[in-house]
Amino acid sequence: MNWTVNLLLMLFLLATAVVAITLKDLLAAVVVFSAYSLMMAMLWTQLRAPDLALTEAAVGAGVTTVLFIIVVYRTVRREDR
Amino acid sequence: MNFSRMFHNLNYVVSVLLFLIGLYAVTVKPNLIKKLIGLNIMETSVFLFIVSIGMVESGQAPIVTEGVKTSQMVNPIPQALILTGIVVAVSTTAVALSLCLRLHERYGTLNSDEILASITDVSQLGRPWEEF
Amino acid sequence: MKRLLVLVALAVIGVTLLYGIGKMPPMDSRASPDKTHVVPRYLGHGEEEAGAKNIITGVILNYRGYDTMGEVSVIFSALCAVIAILDREKKGRSRSGVDASRVRTSLIVTTVVRFSLPVVMLFAVYTMLHGEPSPGGGFQGGAIVGASIILFTIVFGLAVSTKRIPPGARVPMESVNMLGFLSMGFIGLAFGVQFLTYILPGLGVAAAETVRKLMLDVIELGIGIGGGIIFISIVFSMIREDRYELQQDVP
């Protein structure tokens, strides 16, 4: 495990998590959450878990994001409405 | 508290912080989709914690190959558990999101405060199952 | 006020958790309790006992097979819940945002999806069947199948997608992961050993090895195809926008 890469990934994870829950535009929040999942997939490869990286990249960044986007598209896009 | 060890255990600290961020979104944000994003962040933080426990120094992936001794491999059990956990997480998210779709059809909003305020009178609920 | 209360509660929880992890052993030590109990046996004997070079596949399918069977039933019941809440899409009457849109999809996007989809599918099948010697397995392959079909649906619309994969083809495949697990488990019972045993008695060493590989492959394919089809069905029933039109049709 490379400590520099690990530290950078951790900072990026925290930043994307905070941005994802603060954005008022739900579509943007979902896209940032997808970036969070992708960072998590990269972190799994750092932790020597290639199976988890495959699953997280396909499920977290793919299927979950699409489900969220469908719901945002069919309901409301702004958080305050 | 031992700060040098806590920096060594950076993954644990970050997973606690991510857990708190997700819990804040679940409790404070009124929007249901924001709550679900927070719930997903909480789930991934727990996954990160459990997989980090199984890490070893200069470890290798737990796959039997030429030239890799078994003592170098990381712990496979957390990875196997979290693999099922990721799939369960997306299943629960799908059910919750379909409930969100139904709530929006009925109340016209995804703000949980407004939804709760509009059903203070339980008798007002009527027979929702007969509408569809 | 509520926010202040929540912040205080979060501070209490956070300090408690941080205090707890301050006492934990260093993250990458080989002597921490989780790596000394059963793990050396899994790592040292996993290949011959579970029949997979990838120890994670061995743990998932063999050592903790019951666990995975319960997990597969969780995805299946998630599909049941989504269909109970939202109902399945109707054949030939379903529309999505792509179908209703007057803007034509870009030629570049459709061409790229047409060319890359078969390659993605091939990779998914490779991932499912090569879960033993390399990273991969049923869940991963199934997720890739689901993601690729979802990409197709987003680009070409729900009408085209449901015509290619109609409910008549999907419904029998949705339970294939549970059925694969149960049938392979009952084979063990029929041979007089425990449920979900892959080494069958009375076959000879070489034949038993081949049978075990075959059974593991059947379970991996079942998990993969069933999981992928379940994801596809969930997305189809969430993406459709025809319910109100249907209600207007029926007087």
How much helix, percentage-wise, in residues of chain A? over 70%
The ordered H/E elements of chain A are HHH
- Compute the CA-based radius of gyration of chain A: 14 Å
Number of helices of chain A: 3
Beta-strand content of chain A: under 5%
Which structural class best describes the helix and strand composition of chain A? mainly alpha
Summary of the model, kept short:
The complex is a heterotrimer of chains A (81), B (132) and C (251). Helix content of chain A is 81%, strand content 0%.
Would you mind describing this structure in some detail?
The complex is a heterotrimer of chains A (81), B (132) and C (251). Chain A has helices spanning 3-22, 26-46, 50-74. Chain A is mostly helical. Chain A has one domain. The termini of chain A are far apart. The mean pLDDT of chain A is 90. By secondary structure, chain B is mainly α. Chain B has a single domain (3-55, 73-130), classed as Helix Hairpins, CATH 1.10.287. In chain B, α2 (10-28) runs antiparallel to α3 and α3 (32-53) runs antiparallel to α4 (76-107). The longest helix of chain B is centred in the C-terminal third of the chain and has 32 residues, at 76-107. The radius of gyration of chain B is 21 Å and the shape is elongated. Helix content of chain C is 73%, strand content 0%. Chain C has helices at residues 2-22, 39-50, 55-63, 65-86, 97-100, 107-129, 138-156, 158-164, 167-174, 176-190, 205-239, 243-249. With 251 residues, chain C is an all-alpha fold. Chain C is globular. Chain C is built from twelve helices and no strands. The interface between B and C is large, with 55 and 59 residues.
